[in-house]
Amino acid sequence: MQSVALPSALPAPVPAAEASRATAVPPPPLRPWSRVWRYLAAIGIALALWLAVGADLIPEDGEQVSPSLEARIGAALVLDALLGVVALGVLPLRRRFPRLTGVATGLLTAVSAAAIGAAAVATVSVSTWRRWRRVVPVVTVWAAASVCYELVWRPTILEEPIGVGLAALSGGVAIGMGATCVATGYYVGARRELLSTLRLRAETAEREQAAKAEAAREAERTRIAREMHDVLAHRISLVAMHAGALAYRTDLSREETAEAAGVIRDNAHRALSELREVLGVLRAGTGGGREQDAVAEPPQPVLERVGELLAAARPTVDVTLDCADLPDGSLEGAATLPATVSRTAYRVVQEALTNACKHAPGSAVVVRVAGGPGGLLTVEVDNGAPPAGSAPAVPAAPGAGLGLIGLAERVELAGGVLEHGRDPDGSFTVRAWLPWEEDE
User: Fold this and answer.
1) Is 395's pLDDT higher than 50?
2) Model confidence over 278-288: pLDDT tens digits?
């Protein structure tokens, strides 16, 4: 096991306030339409309230008013509109300075009803952060400005006190609007945080799955290299043995010497081929394996021994073998397969039968092997759905599903193609096509 250096001191605990602040999700950049409709909403609210104030202040037709009152009403409406425009001009700063923008637009509502549109948007924006330290000052200023408008500014214009009932009604409407803006902002902020969390989880799951798939491919490459280790050692041993015989046997005839030299040549060529395959398998390796992992495993059986797999699987599934399209119509016709291709084909059948026994016990499984020298070796394992009342499937182990990823890597390294999937009739099929080179 690798040793891990422990830190000399534990990190200081993060205060709850800082941790909560660190988890705040900043508002995402707005698209053009998202930005435009917010300003349209602020302008619409401002225009509606300004017209409502005008209808409240302007006297009805035929009502006599003094010139001074008429001048004050006109000046108040003009000032109201100008301050509404100023509030809209301050609104673009709400993302950089949310609390300051909310307080500034709230103060303008003390003398301008048209500024309420911008103040509402600013309050929603500051509430999306879901931080009471930012929301409370804005709500307090809004409430104070509403009281000032109803109890000070409006009576000053009309020179008449406002009734208690009307003042209470106006204050209640202002508080309701503020609470609605705060609740809307909190909802938007919670939704943003949820989407950000889900996006982060999805990205993390994708990275973990990619890491598992890459680990499965690396493990399959290492396994293939270990399997080929003994085969390569056997080839080199034959070369050394026959070369030694030629060195010490001086009584051999020319024909026997030529035969021994031919054996040496053939095994040397095969050893070089195996060595190139080993280097190809390890081409993406990092060489960082631990020493205890370097113990060679027994070589994988070849395709001719696939009958052993069928016999072992028959207690769980109803498996049959179809090799009528092989030379000689039997597995003996696959004797001329290259060693790597034969081992890979055996591994395809092994993995497919393992999955069938695990996920579809009691099903009918058909193993088809076809092909010939100079073409392709086709290996197909098809298993139907388990019959009703059969034994339940074995629960998948953690990390299940990577076996086929490693198998695809093995087939690709052998120069072939693997596909797998569920057919329309509910059966699951694994197919592999591997090159079958002719003997020279």
Assistant:
1) no
2) 666 555 454 44
The token pair at 343 is: 């081992």
Give me the mean pLDDT over the 396-418 stretch: 73
pLDDT at 70 exceeding the cut of 60: yes
The CA-to-CA distance between both ends of the chain, in Å, stands at 48
Q: How far is CA 215 from the centre of its chain?
A: 17
Quick count: other Cβ atoms within 10 Å of Cβ 263? 17
User: Residue 110: which pLDDT band, with cuts at 50, 70 and 90?
Assistant: confident
Q: What's the pLDDT at 227?
A: 66
Q: How far apart are CA 67 and CA 102, in angstroms?
A: 37
Q: In what order do the strands lie in the sheet with 428-436?
A: 318-322, 364-371, 375-383, 428-436, 417-422
Structure tokens at 150: 């109803």
- The Cα–Cα gap between 124 and 34 comes to 14
| Alpha-carbon span 3 to 10, nearest angstrom | 18
Mean predicted confidence (pLDDT) in 86-112: 88
Which own/partner pairs from 398-403 qualify as long-range (CB within 8 Å, at least 24 positions apart)? 399/212, 402/212, 402/213, 402/215, 402/216, 403/216, 403/351, 403/354, 403/355
Q: Which of 193, 184, 196 is nearest to 38 (CA)?
A: 184
3-state secondary structure of 422: strand
- List the structure tokens of 419: 């596909």
Whole-number mean pLDDT of the chain?
77
* 375-383 and 318-322 strand pairing: unpaired
> Are the C-beta atoms of 164 and 172 separated by less than 8 Å?
no
Burial of 104 (0-12, 13-18, 19+ CB in 10 A): buried
Q: pTM of whole model > 0.85?
A: no
Q: How far is CA 33 from CA 29, 36, 37, 193, 259, in A?
A: 12, 5, 6, 22, 85
Please give the helix or strand (H or E) that residue 55 lies within, else none.
Answer: helix 32-57
